[in-house]
Amino acid sequence: MRNAWDRVVKLIGYDNAEKIREEFKDEEIRVPVKPPKTVIVPLIKDELKTGRYEEIAKKYNLSIDTVRRYEKWQVFKDKIVSPTGRVYPLLA
Hints:
It is built from 5 helices and 3 strands; from the N terminus they run αααααβββ. By secondary structure, the chain is mainly α. The chain folds into 2 domains: 1-31, no CATH class; 37-89. The chain has a 3-stranded antiparallel β-sheet, covered by helices on one side.
């Protein structure tokens, strides 16, 4: 655990790490292997306006096929909707 926290401090700096530690001190945080759809889909949709599939896939460590698939999703103010109609609420 200590090594992980040292890496967090190196990545984002001591002040930001302390803010995070203070905010989440009573909670257990699990770091996902892949970013959640509710986070990554809106980011990809925004970047597709100016970027290329290859650049976006590399930036977010995704395949080009995944980027193309996420392009078909619909993003609304409070939710995202998959092509199959499944609704994912966005966190405020």
